Amino acid sequence: MPQNLQHSSSFSVEDTRKLFQGWLESRSDDHLARILFNRKDTLYPLPPSISSLAVRLELKTSITKALRQLNAVELAIIELLNDYEHTAGIGGKIASIDCPQLIHLVETTPEAQNMHPPLEHEHMTKAIHDALDHLYDLALVFSHDEHLFLAPHVAQSLPTWAKIISDSPGLTESQAHQLLAQLTPEQKKIVETLHKSGGVGITKDARADADPSRPIPRMISAGILIAVDEATVRLPRVIRDTLRGYSSAPLPLFPPANTHIPINLEQQSHHDAGTGLEMIRLLRDLLDTLAQDPIALLKDGCIGVRHVHVLCKQLDCQPLVLARLISFGIASGLISTGVLKALPEGAPMDNYCAPTELYDEWLDLELGQQWAWIVWHWWTHATMLPWLVGETDHKDKPMRLLHPDTFHEQFPEIRTLLLKQFHALSTTDTSADTSSPQESTGSAVSTTTLRAHVGFCSPIQAAQLAEHTYQQLLAEAAFLGILNPVSASVDESGAADTPLPQFYATTSMLGALTYHASQEQETQLYATAKALTPQPIDYVIFQSDLTILAPGPLTHKLYSEISLLADRESSGLASVFRISETSLSRAFSAGRNADDILHFLDNHTPMPIPDAVAYLIHDVGRKYGNIRMGTALSYIRCSDDTLLAQVCNSVKGQGNTLRQLAPTVAISTQPLRLLLEQIKEMGFHPSVENEQGLTIDIRPPAARVSYQEKKKKAEPEIDELLHCALDTLRRAQKQGKDTAVGLPATDMIKAAIKQRTSVLVHFVDRTGTAQHKEITPIAITGQQVSAVDKHTGAPLNFLLPTVTEVAEIL
After folding, report:
1. Rounded to whole angstroms, how far apart are CA atoms 153 and 745?
2. Could you confirm whether domain 626-699 is CATH 2.115.10?
3. What share of the chain is helix, strand, coil (3-state, %, to 5)?
């Protein structure tokens, strides 16, 4: 304790619990509503009394959620109060300080004194007062007679990995590497065990009088371990981060300076529209490929390496891009895994990766709506981290595509946190009007700047994020078209000739996602995408070198036909396709003939079809459609009797029965599918007709798997819930029933356990239904009571915070 700080009072743990409940009782309705709003988890079911609410606010799970809402200065205040309460306390008592003393503690920390430029006293005082107001609204800190206290169990819930006030001042990353390299095998084993168990462990060697020659006291002395108490040690944050293989996240005590590059946001948005539409083009190609050739998954549910290579070659993309596309498809409900609805003939009943029925619905949307659909579902549902594919898992084996460890259910929360902070940083120079997501000017922000600001605003989350996560997330957002990479001329320190960090600019698409009215974000996103997306065109331009120019995004029907009869050479808002014999063969195999193709192209070009293109179509067409097939079991008809005779001779040479009935007609005992494959193997290109003689598409039907929409949890309106909670709490106070789950009720249950007697308990079950039972309590574990029903003997479990009354059985 600093020499010039003298605590004026100290309290026992039991005293602080009573003071905390009294503080809650004295809150105004507005303040209590803010506490309940910030701690919504305490509202289910509605707390029957203030004392019940107090117990819920003391639960570690609830406190942990509340701590994640803190910025660095707020977390630092809790750390300083915790250290002061226990270092200045006497005989197990908790010491307290007032606000001026707290300000002095903050100002004298190395983190505050080493700030460049230093923060003025007035600004620091205001920041601390604002932080205390937020801590009061979270019920993590309370006051009594102008003295500050941590709410019960807050100290025990503090994370060990996010320390604002350094637990190892002066220990740099390079020194941490040196210390770890000097460990003995025994010490390495201890450190590795601690690291795998979360960085905290129990040992008898943490005492001050422990044998200094033993491994743990030696590591404590060297700064590799920190003694929490006489039985607990933990790893300092810099040591933990070094073991994890990345540099410690910056957690500045106060907001860092913002380095930026001024930019025009409107230009960035239109530039990124092209990037977003190229992503849509790639995704459509992937879905079309999976529809025709669904992927059979491995036994572990992953996509094999061979399939990844094949898909990358077909899409002309890198494995990371493929992983991103599949991630987008899964998040948006366009791709799923499971049994195909229509299995190809001979295919095993297996687990496949294929498009869902939603793909057909998505294809019918306008191009801008398709883009907005993907972006919105990525923002709200994408849990896959594509950049982890290929990394090693906990067994040191590379993770394949769709590996379970590449999915993290909580990542949408992290994505929202990082990109909202990015958008706030990139629009700090815009006009004061924030009622619309459309900004005109702003700033390009680097990953380095973003990481520092997230470290201040959300230190607990930031401490667990590697720099690589920021880089990959922003790159993924740029791939989607909601951020735009920007070149920088100097680094953030203004120095030249140094490696430059990657800067990104926000767009109006990200502005729509972070729109202040959350219920309107999806509507704003669709409107923004529509405004940025050029209208699809229904024509192409032929060039003399057998290429076709699409001067803009094509309608889906035109795009599908052009992709069928030509190969894409370049992509973007304007695309180039090339017609070849191979590409035309693909169209003829799909049931088209020369006249169909020429008629279609003539209707979708503003100028005559070049002679070279028409000649190639007719030349390739002569090899198609002259051979006509059907079932007899199968039949073949052909207007060219010489060609038919050649076919019959080739097939008969394979030992199959094919009888020529006339110069232009032959029949076979083979099923149509087998005969078709045999004739194709001979180098012929037949087309298939139906009973009316019309050419039909012989490609297999598109594969689909079932889509199961995730059910949204129905939650009551928060305003209505807060009103009901306040009404219940105040009514309980007026009726004098606010002794529900205080120490007397808990003591009554504990006494019944010791005496093996029964009590009458009123509590609220998990469905929110009030219950009253005569029970024989057995044990209290944490906040859970284990008991048996006195009359039926059935086991019964309930939580202490749900208890409304305990009474003796007369």
Report:
1. 19
2. no
3. 45, 15, 35
Q: What's the pLDDT at 529?
A: 92
Task: Give the pLDDT confidence of 339-356 residue by residue, as tens digits.
Answer: 887 766 656 667 899 999
- What are the C-alpha distances in Å from 467 to residues 324, 383, 450? 19, 19, 10
How far does Cα 280 stand from its chain's mean position?
Answer: 20
For 540, the token pair is: 């192409």
Of the ranges 173-177, 377-381, 463-467, 623-627, which one carries the lowest mean pLDDT score? 623-627
* Dihedral of the alpha carbons of 214, 215, 217, 221, in degrees to the nearest 10: 130
Position 266 pLDDT exceeds 70: no
Structure token pair of residue 405? 């460890």
What sign does the dihedral 471-472-478-481 (CA atoms) show?
negative
Angle at 507 between CA 506 and CA 512, to 5 degrees: 110
Burial (CB count <10 Å: 0-12, 13-18, 19+), residue 586: middle
- Domain map (residue ranges) of the chain: 13-157, 173-244, 260-428+440-487+500-529, 541-622, 626-699, 743-808
Residue 809 neighbours by CB under 8 Å, 6+ apart: 757, 758, 759, 760, 774
Helix H or strand E encompassing 444: strand 441-446
Topology agreement, domain 173-244 and domain 626-699: no
R_g of the chain computed on alpha carbons: 35
CB 486 within 8 A of CB 444: yes
Higher per-residue pLDDT: 599 or 515: 599
More confident residue, 739 or 802: 802
pLDDT of 589 above 60: yes
Residue 451, both tokens: 């990481």
Q: What is the mean pLDDT of the chain?
A: 84
Tell me which residue of 667, 605, 657 sits closest to 632, measured CA to CA: 667
What is the b/e burial string over 89-106, where b = at least 16 CB atoms within 10 angstroms of the residue's CB? beeebbbbbeeebbbebb
**How many angstroms separate the Cα of 534 from the Cα of each of 273, 282, 479, 503?**
9, 18, 19, 27
Asked if 788 contacts 795 with a C-beta cutoff of 8 angstroms, the reply is: yes
Burial group, residue 342, by CB count within 10 angstroms (0-12, 13-18, 19+): exposed
Apex CA 484: angle with CA 482 and CA 490, to 5°? 150
Q: Are 393 and 405 in contact (CB under 8 A)?
A: yes
Report pTM.
Answer: 0.76
How does DSSP classify residue 356? B
Q: Which CATH number fits domain 743-808: 3.30.70.1730, 2.120.10.30, 2.30.30.100, 3.30.530.20?
A: 2.30.30.100
Q: What percent of the chain has pLDDT over 70?
A: 85
Nearest CA to 687 among 621, 614, 619? 621
Partners of residue 780 on adjacent β-strands? 785
> Tens digits of per-residue pLDDT, 734-770?
776 554 444 467 778 888 888 888 888 887 776 656 6
**For 173-244, CATH number?**
1.10.10.10
